[in-house]
Amino acid sequence: ERERRVRIGLLGMVGAPDGSDAEVGAMILARWRSRGYAAEAIAELARYAFTTLPLTRLHTRHEPGNGAAIGLMHRLGFERAADAGEGVGQRWELLRENWQLRASRES
After folding, report:
1. Which DSSP letter does residue 74 get?
2. Is the pTM of this model over 0.85?
């Protein structure tokens, strides 16, 4: 937790060689799930990616049928992307323009 500086999971971002997009991922330890930590972390990472870095798209993926991940992607404004093939899972993307529109409505 933030106040006690307890590690509750991992957050990562890996960029494409051309610098236009990046894949993001989060893993929260079971006892800390359903508390909004993943949403908070990914939202902040998106803000950083689209205001500080030159990224135009973030993408992520998860196992099919992961209801928590599906809900999280919807809440954060990600949209379903075309599946990349067998074994990749469900893919989602967030475009800079869509993030900016959503951020302007929330401010």
Report:
1. H
2. yes
